[in-house]
Design brief:
Layout (H helix, E strand, L loop, with lengths): L5 E9 L5 H11 L3 E13 L5 E6 L2 H11 L7 E4 L5 H13 L5 E3 L14 H11 L5 E2 L3 H8 L7 H13 L5 E6 L6 E7 L4 E7 L9 H14 L4 H17 L15 H5 L1
Parallel strand pairs: 1-2, 1-4, 4-5, 5-6
Antiparallel strand pairs: 2-3, 7-8, 8-9
Helix pairs in contact: 1-7, 2-3, 3-4, 5-6, 7-8
Length: about 270
């Protein structure tokens, strides 16, 4: 029998299916891996209140029990984190990574829900910076998150993104991808990858309409899937970019508020 490749997501639930553990597990499946999940938060969206998000953290002790269950089989081939929800959950995640000598760690430092613009929990953001970035094989902040982690605030140019990536690398992350996506002005979606010595700028034409709900979660999960399959970090990031672009191209309008990516898009286009 072919060796089973194992991947793990420690993240929140998005009941609309585009982001969170739902996105991660679908992506892991597309990469031919067996996905484990430890649920950290439950997020609901209210269609009667402009799609406002409500976030309900799971007790950290329950997150720890989930991780104990998962790691009973030993380390996985790669893992990623998403929305963690509290300082205590960040601490539980840190200890699970250290205690199990887990490698191939992708940290997606989720600080806001799409459509929201305030850090859900500033103390958790600080804990991610101090406890998880030094353990990260790759960290994948968006512009807002990169501005917070780097201390630079609002990022509006590629040079800003490069400087943020450099500063985040100094915090301990081995590799940094700052996701500009469609947020920069112009016709191009731009991401900046920094491996500690060299920058790679990824560009692609912006896709309209932008059915991109879950793109960030999917991107981090795809990097984890690539690493689990033995790709180098550079290869895993490049393939994840292609995977997410295909997922956005094949996305759909869920309702008047959100259009999720379709996680099978890359396979359908091959």
């Amino acid at each position: 029998m072919t060796k089973i490749i194992k991947t793990l997501t420690i993240a929140g639930s998005d009941s609309s299916g585009g982001a969170g553990i739902q996105a991660d597990l679908k992506t892991f499946e597309e990469y031919g891996t067996y996905g484990f999940s430890a649920l950290t938060t439950i997020v609901t969206m209210d269609p009667d209140n402009g799609w406002h998000h409500n976030v309900y953290p799971i007790d950290a002790a329950i997150v720890a029990e989930q991780l104990k269950t998962i790691f009973a089989g030993g380390p996985v081939d790669a893992m990623k984190t998403g929305m963690l929800g509290s300082v205590e959950i960040v601490q539980v995640t840190e200890q699970a990574i250290k205690n199990n000598r887990q490698t191939n760690v992708v940290i997606d430092p989720v600080m806001v829900c799409k459509g929201e613009d305030e850090v859900l929990n500033p103390e958790s953001a600080h804990a991610i910076r101090d406890l998880l970035l030094p353990l990260a094989t790759v960290v994948t902040p968006n512009l807002f998150e990169a501005g917070v982690l780097s201390g630079l605030g609002k990022l509006s140019t590629i040079e800003d993104m490069k400087e943020a990536a450099r500063l985040i690398h100094e915090l301990g992350a081995s590799n940094v991808v700052v996701k500009g996506g469609k947020s920069l002005d112009g016709d191009q979606a731009v991401d900046v990858f920094f491996n500690g010595s060299d920058y790679t700028v990824f560009t692609a034409d912006k896709i309209e309409p932008a059915t991109n709900h879950g793109a960030g979660c999917t991107f981090a999960a795809a990097i984890a899937g690539g690493l689990a399959n033995g790709l180098s970090v550079d290869e895993a990031v490049a393939k994840a970019k292609d995977f997410v672009l295909a997922a956005i191209r094949n996305g759909f309008a869920f309702n008047e508020y959100v259009g999720p990516v379709f996680h099978g898009g890359y396979r359908l286009e091959q």
